[in-house]
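Priority: low. Protein: Glycogen [starch] synthase. Input follows.
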Amino acid sequence: MPLARSLSVTSLSGLEEWDEEFELEDAVLFEIAWEVANKVGGIYTVIQTKARLTAEEWGENYFLVGPYVESNVRTQVELIEPTNPVLKRTIDKMNSSGCKVYFGRWLIEGSPYVVLIDVGFTAWSLDRWKSELWDLGAIGVPWFDREANDAVLFGFLTAWLLGEVTQSEEPPHIVAHFHEWLAGLGLVLCRKRQLPVATIFTTHATLLGRYLCAGSVDFYNNLSKFNVDKEAGDRQIYHRYCLERAAAHCAHVFTTVSQITAIEAEHLLKRKPDIVTPNGLNVKKFSAMHEFQNLHAQSKSRIQEFVRGHFYGHLDFNLDKCLFLFIAGRYEFSNKGADIFLEALARLNYLLRVNHSDVTVITFFIMPARTNNFNVETLKGQAVRKQLWDTAHTVKERFGKKLYESLLVGQLPDVAKMLDKEDFTIMKRAIFATQRQSQPPICTHNMLDDSSDPILNSVRRIGLFNSSADRVKIIFHPEFLSSTSPLLPMDYEEFVRGCHLGVFPSYYEPWGYTPAECTVMGIPSISTNLSGFGCFMEEHIADPSAYGIYILDRRYKGVDESCNQLTSFLFQFCKQSRRQRIIQRNRTERLSDLLDWRYLGRYYIAARHMALAKAFPDTFIYEPHEPSSATGFRYPRPASVPPSPSLSRHSSPHHSEAEEDEDERYDEDLEAEKDRVNIRQKCHHKNIPPCCH
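Result:
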């Protein structure tokens, strides 16, 4: 689903069109990944969102190759006969040789063609192919590693597919783009068999990097010191590591998703990436200038309704002065920065209390964990809220009827007689139903591993139990959001729009789709200089925090220093007025062009052109962009007063009620024009490396 943004920000781009035109009439692109029509992780999002742009560029010559998973095919793929005669002959030949290969259209934006291979159907060849792999590169795959076994089957089958296509009478110029180690063996086999195929390998995160970071090591400061073979062997992933490293070295063009991952790949995979290909999103534009602000208000009101139920009996804080923060993603407690976030929340709670702040911070942890059902107390809260709502409507209708009858006879109503004893009885019973002896629950579900859960154990350690005295409240929702949930019936996009700040203090985050999605939706976020997104924004924005992109230093600071910096970011955000937050959201959303595939897709285009030129030098010529003519640029500081309270016109973070008035507006067009004038169309500074050269 495309993420929407407003037309009011269309011109802050400073983005030049690349002038690279290749004749692609006789070229065919195969993009191969385990997550084609098969959602496992973030690579699915990359391929799904990029498909429309790639299909527009390559037309009928673009084919995605992935595994056949029946449950996914039923809901996502329309199976059809192959339209390309060469591919039809290839698929028919493979099917007659004991394979099961399907062809269809993936029902997403762009409707790209997909070739889906049933790896389980050819499992009878696994031992033979594993033996061939051992003879080829001395890589032994253990029998118990099912994922690696699937990678072997998928690799040999994709190489078989590409080999058959190249055997046609007039074979086209083929580009084969392989994503991640699970697809990498197909690339290695293509090169070993000397197939006339231009190959690209993209690693979205190195295997060894993910494992090392999960082990709480000082990863980035010791990159050059790791004995990679020993580390991979100690973690029993040496065979996987070998497949990944072989693919990186065999590819004509090796790419990765961010500068920070490029450094990691250079040390762990022993090859410097040829080009960085950042991940983008499909950005859909609104026609109304302030529509995304209105969506924020609508979604926020739905979150407030949930909060009213969750905190029933303890709703002693002002919801209009409530800020909603969230962290979301895979449940990797340290890698995703949940550990440092919880510690920062404890420190923020102390600061808000000693400064007598009237702001309440409600923080959501959206991370899937093992549960057996919803928490009864949480469900009861929503039931009590609904009961109160129904009671209020009943009394309102009775009151309205009496008022109507009084006005009909031309009399002003006697307010004392408008509510009778029965009305008061109904209301008293409703109030008594809201009484609660226990604190509002931290977790919305019953956890299977409650005693060993890292988030819950940290909450117990820091003592944030949603008590009345605390200014910071925590809600742990150990399940992905769904619009059909009886508890919080919102999908993820709607929930993000209703929040005020996304917090992603990750230690290991090769790219970071969650803060990117926040940016496109105009929601400020906290990222780190160890995430691809954070590094990308630092390169392109002179002062990221002025645009609502806070970059936490986790590379050159210790944990305690980073935690203090995160606490400072949170505390400064809490001191902003409503008007300052509106201005900041507009500025954040203005950065959407940076993250649109319309812009970032150019790096994938450059990678494909580079691969064609390397594989077919007599036909294609590629001239890389030199730094002197780079299209790199930076957004400067906004021309107007920045949203930081410390630099505002007020001497105190406590603002008057007049400033909180919803009718107070600022001129969005004037704000945008000031920023527009300051955009540098080209930037040649030495400290701003182009993303591709």
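The longest strand covers residues 173-179. DSSP finds 23 helices and 19 strands in the chain.
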